[in-house]
Amino acid sequence: MARPRTFDEADVIARARKAFADTGFAGTSLDTLLEATGLARQSLYNAFGGKKELFMRAFLSDAAEAVEAVESIRHGEDSPIGRIRSQLVKVAVEQGSAQAAPSLFTKAAVELSARDAEVASTVEAAFESMSRHYAACIAEAQAAGEIEAYADADALGTFFCAVIEGMSTLGGSGVARATLLDIGFTSMAAIPITDLGREHLGTGDGDWS
Amino acid sequence: MARPRTFDEADVIARARKAFADTGFAGTSLDTLLEATGLARQSLYNAFGGKKELFMRAFLSDAAEAVEAVESIRHGEDSPIGRIRSQLVKVAVEQGSAQAAPSLFTKAAVELSARDAEVASTVEAAFESMSRHYAACIAEAQAAGEIEAYADADALGTFFCAVIEGMSTLGGSGVARATLLDIGFTSMAAIPITDLGREHLGTGDGDWS
DNA sequence: GTCATCATGGACCAGCCGGTCACGAACCCG
DNA sequence: CGGGTTCGTGACCGGCTGGTCCATGATGAC
Question: With DSSP H G I counted as helix, E B as strand and the rest as coil, what are the percentages for chain A, rounded to 5?
Answer without folding.
Answer: 70, 0, 30
